[in-house]
Description:
Layout lengths: L29 E2 H6 L1 H9 L4 E5 L2 E6 L37
Parallel strand pairs: 1-2
Antiparallel strand pairs: 2-3
Amino acid sequence: MQNSRANVPALDMDWTNRTKCCWLGAMKPVKMHEAKTNFSKLIGLVEAGEEVVIQRGDVPVAKIVPYEAGGHAREAGALKGRIEIAEDFDSLPAGFEEYVG
């Protein structure tokens, strides 16, 4: 079965009687059992940019969203010369003596 969205995998719209899928907007919540049974198909939807909400009973408990790679890797020493540590950094503030053993 092919749907009208490009690059969205075709889904068997008869997963179960409880499956409700809306191709005009975000996917409606999927019950836990149904999500386990059709996990690969749901991942296919996520790969195509959809968000999938998983419910336990009638309570939403999780959302599967497309992965977004983080920014750039940190570089050691990138802030060298831009951060200054105060001379009294390691000294104990007044009134805190009882908290230090």
